[in-house]
Design goal:
Blueprint lengths: L2 H66 L2 H16 L3 H13 L5 H8 L1 H17 L6 E6 L4 E4 L12 H6 L5 E3 L3 E3 L4 E11 L5 E10 L1 H13 L3 E6 L5 E4 L10 H7 L15 E5 L7 E8 L12 E7 H4 L1 H47 L14 H34 L1 H17 L9 H22 L1
Antiparallel strand pairs: 1-2, 1-6, 3-5, 4-5, 5-6, 7-8, 7-11, 9-10, 10-11
Length: 468
């Protein structure tokens, strides 16, 4: 391999090493950025879900405060419980009103329940929250006595008798309050959660239940506020068993996506968080035509006395946006690497030329000297080691020239003093040397070289005559 090729190859290797270090650095930075953004996304999801849990808790707290600081409520419950306790045909009485209630009849008993003082106060309270919030926060609120029948309500519920409902039977096992899963509430015509508060008298005896329907619109609004901040950020709110409550994009309420989601996060199908569960990962988007996205999630853990519903909040973020700085840096590095490579090649060519050109001149001069031309001068003007080599080479040429001139001078002297005898003797010795080393002929003085050549010619002619 020639010197210029070696130099160019060396510069290319250096350029490639610089590029490789840059690529490795960018990949390392991308991994670090991915981890940082992934943890940040998990934190954001956690904070969002924590805000949702706090919101639900404070909604519950308002009604708990109302229930335990309202003497009129306890008085009405005590009176109703006493009346029902004194009824001899209590179950028949309940069944008759329940039948009329379901049939939509407006009997005096039903009108008394819907328009009593406690019902009016409940309506004023829910209307107040609706007016302040701009939507119906609590679509329905009602109170049952200890026998599970409605004694006050903001509106006509689906049933008069609530004691046989699943929510009621679950609620009475709780000590203070209970929040139910999101579902479609027929009475309020809204997707909502039940807030159920058990009521006790001063002696700790169970006296009834206050049930309030919480519209989940306020919960959804918490997520929508975050969506407005970054257009490429998407959220999915799921129940603990993986049913859809809300999604940024088009969705079907209560659609079961548990298998798809839980598989990605290494989450058991029950939806309960585990120690080895992934907090975030990068994968292709879950919608057709979507590129890679970063998925992060967290579980509802409740707040204070509110245990939480185990809801799952998933945050999706397009990687092309979050890694935009890395991609930009990578593209810049590619451009810079290309420029560096071109510059390295040009520098390599320049340096190679500056080194090989003087060496080529030296080589050409050496070839001419080999042919016997000692008058050729090596024109190398560089002031580096090659220049020193050229100067030494030229000094060697001059030394050979001086020796050659001296030899010619001696031959002339011999010829002048001893005549042809000396010339013949010298020529004979030279002929013997040339036979042993033919290269000597190329550096013989011109006069001696011509004589040797004539001698060879005469010798060949004699050999021809002898053969004939």
């Amino acid at each position: 391999m020639k010197i210029n090729q070696k130099l160019i190859l060396g510069f290319l290797v250096v350029a490639l090493l610089i590029t490789s270090v840059g690529v490795i650095s960018i990949n390392t930075s991308q991994e670090a950025l991915q981890e940082s953004i992934g943890k940040g996304a998990v934190t954001l999801a956690h904070e969002t879900l924590d805000k949702i849990d706090r919101t639900i808790y404070h909604k519950v707290l308002r009604w708990v405060s109302y229930a335990y600081t309202n003497p009129r409520l306890h008085e009405t419950l005590a009176k109703s419980n006493q009346e029902f306790e004194n009824l001899s045909n209590r179950q028949e009485y309940i069944n008759n009103i329940d039948r009329d209630w379901k049939e939509g009849k407006d009997t005096p008993s039903i009108q008394e329940i819907l328009n009593n003082e406690l019902s009016n106060r409940l309506r004023k309270r829910t209307e107040f929250y609706e007016e302040k919030s701009g939507y119906n926060v609590f679509p329905e609120a009602y109170i049952t006595n200890k026998y599970g029948v409605v004694i006050a309500s903001t509106g006509r519920t689906s049933d008069y008798l609530q004691a046989d409902e699943e929510w009621y039977q679950k609620a009475v096992t709780e000590k203070e309050f209970w929040v139910g899963e999101v579902e479609y509430d027929e009475s309020s015509n809204a997707f909502a959660s039940d807030i159920v508060i058990n009521l006790y008298d001063e002696n700790g005896n169970f006296i009834g239940i206050l049930k309030v329907i919480l519209n989940i619109e306020e919960i959804i609004n918490i997520i929508k506020e975050l969506e407005e901040e970054v257009a490429t950020r998407e959220f999915e709110l799921l129940t603990k068993d993986g049913k859809m409550i809300y999604a940024t994009e088009e969705y079907v309420f209560f659609e079961d996506i548990s298998k798809e989601i839980f598989m990605h996060f290494d989450m058991p199908l029950a939806g309960e968080p585990t120690e080895h569960m992934k907090q975030y990962f990068i994968a292709k988007g879950d919608k057709p035509g979507e590129g890679e996205e970063l998925f992060a999630h967290t579980h509802s853990k409740g707040y204070r006395d509110y245990k939480g519903l185990g809801w799952i909040l998933i945050l999706e973020h397009e990687t092309k946006e979050i890694f935009a700085p890395v991609f930009k840096l990578r593209n810049t590095l590619i451009i810079i690497s290309g420029i560096i490579t071109i510059i390295a090649v040009l520098i390599g060519l320049f340096l190679a030329k500056s080194i090989t050109k003087p060496i080529q001149k030296l080589s050409e001069s050496a070839k001419k000297i080999k042919q016997g031309n000692l008058n050729i001068k090596c024109e190398v003007k560089s002031k580096d080691e090659i220049g020193e080599l050229a100067q030494t080479f030229d000094e060697m040429r001059l030394g050979l020239k001086d020796r050659n001139n001296l030899l010619n001078s001696l031959l002339k002297t011999f010829k002048g003093k001893f005549g042809n005898i000396a010339t013949i003797l010298v020529r004979k010795d030279v002929q013997e040397l040339v036979k042993k080393n033919p290269r000597i002929e190329k550096i013989l003085p011109k006069s001696l070289g011509i004589s040797v050549e004539k001698s060879k010619k005469l010798q060949r002619e004699q050999e021809k005559k002898s053969k004939k």
